[in-house]
Specification:
There is one protein chain. This protein has 272 residues and is an alpha/beta fold. It has helices at residues 12-20, 32-41, 60-68, 103-107, 110-115, 127-137, 148-154, 203-213, 244-254, and strands spanning 2-6, 25-29, 46-53, 57-58, 71-80, 84-87, 98-101, 120-123, 142-146, 157-160, 170-178, 190-197, 217-225, 233-240, 258-267. It folds into three domains: 2-80 and 170-178, Periplasmic binding protein-like II (D-Maltodextrin-Binding Protein, domain 2, 3-Layer(aba) Sandwich), CATH 3.40.190; 84-160, Periplasmic binding protein-like II (D-Maltodextrin-Binding Protein, domain 2); 190-267, Alpha-Beta Plaits (2-Layer Sandwich), CATH 3.30.70. Helix content is 29%, strand content 35%. The strands form three sheets. Strands 1, 2, 3, 4, 5 and 11 form a six-stranded mixed β-sheet that branches. A five-stranded mixed β-sheet has the order 8-7-9-6-10. Strands 13-14-12-15 form a four-stranded antiparallel β-sheet, with helices on both faces. A hairpin with a 7-residue loop joins strand 13 (217-225) and strand 14. The two termini are 25 Å apart.
Length: 272
């Protein structure tokens, strides 16, 4: 299976894709929009995208892309995120003056950076991309924060392991396919939905009450503004369910209260 990811080889998305499909062929993309474009055009069979981090929260752009493209979530997985300080082979920690990584990774390693005042943090587009650039430039005074896989892939050296502030650092990833290609797991027990509400008093409460009446356990709710319509919102929810019939009932129950309802995926809940 050819899978598109946002980021470079050796990124956490790359690691998550191989965790879900061990023999996958990885197609790196610079932007998340490029990932979905490749999927739409049939250049890849699937995409693996991060949707939520246990510390940093949701990847909001990916909710919007799931809504606007004709795709479905087929699987989810959880990946433990371990950040490492990476440099060129033979470089010592004391030589490092600059540290590059994705802004989220830098934020998750504040304590380490605060303890190493000689190191200046620089934001980059990708964790693994920072390692790639480091090796290409051959800069012995620079380092990157990324996965061990990135160090191995680009021939760099891990100087310090596990530099993240909080070890309870997980990212939830979705395996996404075109809607007509997506398969439903026989043990699916979780559904992701998007809906917008009629502009009337109590509409959100009424919609959520419908889900509660079915005995559905809502595990997440997120709101995003509707583009071009100020103060109107799309709501994204994840619910634990017991059967395909319950999933269908949830969709039917929401429709009288909503101007739009879309099932984003029906899949098996990942276990940490």
């Amino acid at each position: 299976m050819k899978i598109a990811i946002q980021g470079e080889f050796g990124s956490f998305s790359h690691e998550a894709a191989l965790q879900m499909v061990p023999d996958a062929e990885i197609a790196p993309c610079a932007l998340s929009a490029d990932v979905f474009r490749a999927l739409d055009m049939g250049a890849v069979e699937a995409a693996v995208i991060p949707i939520e981090n246990s510390l940093a929260g949701s990847v909001l752009e990916h909710f919007d892309l799931l809504l606007t493209h004709d795709v479905r979530v087929e699987r989810e997985s959880l990946l433990r995120i371990r950040h490492n300080l990476i440099a060129l082979p033979g470089v010592a920690v004391e030589e490092i003056e600059r540290v590059s990584s994705h802004p989220v990774a830098l934020a998750q390693c504040r304590r380490f950076l605060a303890e190493h005042t000689a190191m200046r943090a620089l934001a980059s587009y990708d964790t693994a991309g920072s390692v790639k650039l480091l090796v290409e430039q051959g800069d012995r005074q620079a380092a990157a924060i990324a996965s061990q896989a990135a160090a191995v892939h680009y021939g760099a050296q891990v100087l310090v392991t596990a530099i993240e502030d909080n070890p309870e650092n997980y990212t939830r990833f979705f395996l996404v396919r075109r809607a007509f290609d997506a398969k439903t797991d026989a043990e699916a027990n979780k559904i992701s939905l998007a809906f917008s509400l009629e502009n009337r008093s109590g509409s959100l409460v009424a919609a959520l009450n419908e889900l509660a009446a079915l005995g559905t356990n809502m595990t997440k709710i997120e709101s995003r503004p509707v583009q071009g319509r100020p103060w109107e919102y799309i709501f994204y929810v994840d619910c634990q369910i017991r059967s395909a019939d319950e999933a269908a009932s949830a969709l039917r129950a929401l429709k009288p209260h909503c101007s739009m309802v879309k099932e984003l995926g029906f899949y098996r809940e990942a276990q940490s």
